[in-house]
Amino acid sequence: MAVNDTAPTKAQLEHRILWRDTLRTSAYKQGKGALKQDDLKGDGCLHCCLGVAEELRGCTWKDDRDTWRVVNEKGHIVAEVVLSRDGVEWLGFQFAAHGYAYQGKIDFGYEDRFGTKYVTLAELNDGDRVHGKAIPPLAFDQIADVIDYFLIRPFVPGGDRAHEVRP
Fold this sequence. Notes:
Blueprint: H1 10-23, E1 29-30, E2 36-38, E3 45-47, H2 49-57, E4 60-64, E5 67-71, E6 77-79, H3 85-91, E7 105-107, E8 118-120, H4 121-126, E9 129-130, E10 133-134, H5 140-152
Parallel strand pairs: 1-3
Antiparallel strand pairs: 2-3, 2-5, 4-5, 5-6, 7-8, 9-10
Helix pairs in contact: 1-2, 1-5
């Protein structure tokens, strides 16, 4: 189950499918620790899985040394390591109650010693300490499988939440 996830509109579900499908290609090189950053070992840029979603929605980037930041129409930085508000809306997610950007929280059904029951897509992308255990980073195609299972399948025809999809 995705945490803080409302049923998407048809367009938002299509965006999730595009995101999943893009992660399954070699169109983007995977990075960690930022939505987008310069590839210091080669040409081009590296993206977090959330940065790929920002690219797909057509965000505007500002190059700030080696890290790229999402900016709004006034040029103000709105995101660096988590989805921007526009990215959240584009995918049909919600912001957490405290206003901090959604990072793709997925509930795998177990709790750590602090009562946390979820892992974020950003943590799966970067490899992190989750629930007291070090986890290796997942490749984009593996993250695409997580997105498919938790954020797409429940809402497509035959899914247990398909009736919730809004026009």
